[in-house]
Design brief:
It is a single chain. About 0% of the residues lie in helices and about 45% in strands. With about 100 residues, the chain is mostly beta strands. It is globular, with a radius of gyration of 18 Å.
Length: about 100
Amino acid sequence: MCIRDRACATIAGVGINEANVSSVSIYPNPTNGEFYISSIANAVSVTVYSVDGKVIINNLKVINSNQLINLGNVENGVYFVEVSNETSKETIRLIVK
């Protein structure tokens, strides 16, 4: 950032790291409403949103490496699975058929 003839400063490292929650994977995708979440991290929190922003599952604590998650009777469509830990967050698109 520069202001006229004054010294310039570079600003970096602002915000949340959204690129690394220790290799998260969701399978199967597409799914029938049940899916597994796999993460190298010891514990993560999972929130599932519908495409219109409605919270389907809120802050589910996942401790096991391959934990089954059941969305219940949700309609077919696109959902967003947000996986986070203390330092990072990742959002994965999930298709329910």
